[in-house]
Design brief:
Elements: H1 10-26, H2 31-41, H3 47-63, E1 67-72, H4 75-78, E2 81-82, H5 85-93, E3 109-114, H6 116-131, H7 156-161, H8 177-193, H9 198-208, H10 214-230, E4 234-239, E5 248-250, H11 253-261, E6 277-282, H12 284-299
Helix pairs in contact: 1-2, 1-3, 1-6, 2-3, 3-5, 6-12, 8-9, 8-10, 8-12, 9-10, 10-11
Length: 314
C-alpha cells in the first residue's frame, strides 16, 4: 500500500517532489533510479523511509497530472505505454517495480514522464528553492510547450559540421530574442546540470534553435556564454577530466573573451581525450535564473522579475 504524502514532513516532501519532477523532465529513469535521486537529496534517512517517501511523491504527482506513469521496454528509444488510472496504485505499491534486481536488462519497467503542467511545476518549484523562498502561484496557462526533452551531447556529425568560430565574439543584440531566449536557457541548463565542453553546449543550442546554419548557432552560443559569464550567472572554467572530478580553474576576467573567441575552444576534434578544455559552471545566481527563465518558457510568458534575495545560498 502506498503511504499518504502528508505522513512526511514538508522539509522532506519539497526536495523529493523537485527531484522526482526533475527525473520526469530530464531523462528516462527506472523507479529505482528515481528513488536513488531522492536518497541523494535527503541524506541520512533509512533506505526504506526514502522508498516510501518516493512512492508517495510519485503517486501524488501522477494523480495530479504532473507526471505520466509509463511501462515498457527500452523506453529511451521506443517509448512506453501509459499506465491506466486504475492500475497506477498497484504498480507503484509493488516492491518489484522499485527493485532493479527484479528486472533483466531487456525486461519492461516503469518510469515517469513530465507533462506540460509538470514541466512548469518543476521550474516554478526549482526557482523558489534556488532563492530560498516559498513558490509563487502558477501563472494561467497560455500554450502547450513544444516538448520536455532535448539532447545535450554533440554527435560526431554535429562536431564535424561545426567548423570554425569567428575571431571576435559577436554582440548578443545581433540576434533576435526568439533565438536568444531558448539559447540562454539551454546554456544555463548546461552549466547547472552537468559538465559539458563548449562544443557540446553549442550542440544543445543547435537542438533548442533548430533550422539555423551551424556557423550561426556557434556565433549565437559564443555571444550567450560570454554574456552569462560577464553577468556572473556562469563561471568559465578550464581543466582536464572534469566529468570525473578532475581539477579545474576559473578563467580570469581578462582572458575570458580570448578563450571564447578562439575557434579551437569550440572544436571537439582539436582535443585529445586527456587534454584540458573549457566548460561553464552555474553560479547560485545562475541557477536561480535557470529556473526563473525555465518556468516562464514552460508557461509561454515573459519571465517575472527575480525576487529580492532573502539569504546567501549555500
Amino acid at each position: 500500500m502506498i503511504p499518504r504524502l502528508e505522513e512526511f514532513p514538508t522539509a522532506e516532501r519539497a526536495p523529493a517532489e523537485l527531484e522526482v519532477l526533475s527525473s520526469g523532465h530530464e531523462d528516462v529513469y527506472g523507479l529505482w533510479d528515481i528513488a536513488a535521486g531522492v536518497n541523494g537529496e535527503l541524506p541520512g534517512r533509512a533506505v526504506a523511509h526514502v522508498l516510501r517517501l518516493t512512492q508517495a511523491v510519485v503517486f501524488d504527482l501522477v494523480e495530479r497530472g504532473l507526471l505520466e506513469l509509463t511501462y515498457g521496454r527500452e523506453l529511451r528509444d521506443e517509448g512506453g505505454q501509459i499506465v491506466a488510472a486504475e492500475h497506477r496504485e498497484a504498480a507503484l505499491a509493488d516492491p518489484a517495480s522499485w527493485d532493479p534486481y527484479a528486472h533483466a536488462e531487456a525486461d519492461p519497467y516503469y518510469t515517469v514522464t513530465g507533462t506540460p503542467a509538470g514541466i512548469q511545476e518543476y521550474y516554478r518549484l526549482g526557482w523558489a528553492a534556488a532563492e530560498g523562498r516559498e513558490p509563487q502561484p502558477p501563472s494561467p496557462p497560455l500554450h502547450e510547450p513544444d516538448g520536455a526533452s532535448r539532447a545535450h551531447r554533440a554527435s560526431s556529425a554535429d562536431r564535424a559540421d561545426r567548423a570554425r568560430a569567428t575571431p571576435v565574439i559577436p554582440r548578443l543584440d545581433e540576434f533576435p530574442i526568439a533565438e536568444r531566449a531558448p539559447a540562454e536557457l539551454e546554456v544555463l541548463s548546461s552549466g547547472h546540470e552537468s559538465v559539458y565542453a563548449l562544443w557540446e553546449i553549442a550542440a544543445g543550442v543547435n537542438t533548442a534553435v533548430p533550422g539555423r546554419a551551424v556557423a550561426h548557432v556557434l556565433r549565437l552560443t559564443q555571444a550567450v556564454v560570454f554574456n552569462l559569464v560577464e553577468r556572473g550567472l556562469l563561471e568559465l572554467t578550464y581543466g582536464r577530466g572534469l566529468e570525473s572530478g578532475g581539477a579545474s580553474q576559473v578563467v580570469a576576467a581578462e582572458h575570458r573573451e580570448a578563450a571564447l573567441a578562439d575557434p579551437a575552444s569550440w572544436d571537439g576534434y582539436a582535443y585529445a581525450e586527456a587534454d584540458s578544455y573549457y566548460t561553464v559552471t552555474g553560479t547560485p545566481a545562475g541557477i536561480q535564473e535557470y529556473y526563473r527563465l525555465g518556468w516562464a518558457a514552460a508557461e509561454g510568458r515573459e519571465p517575472q522579475p527575480p525576487s529580492p534575495p532573502l539569504h546567501e545560498p549555500d
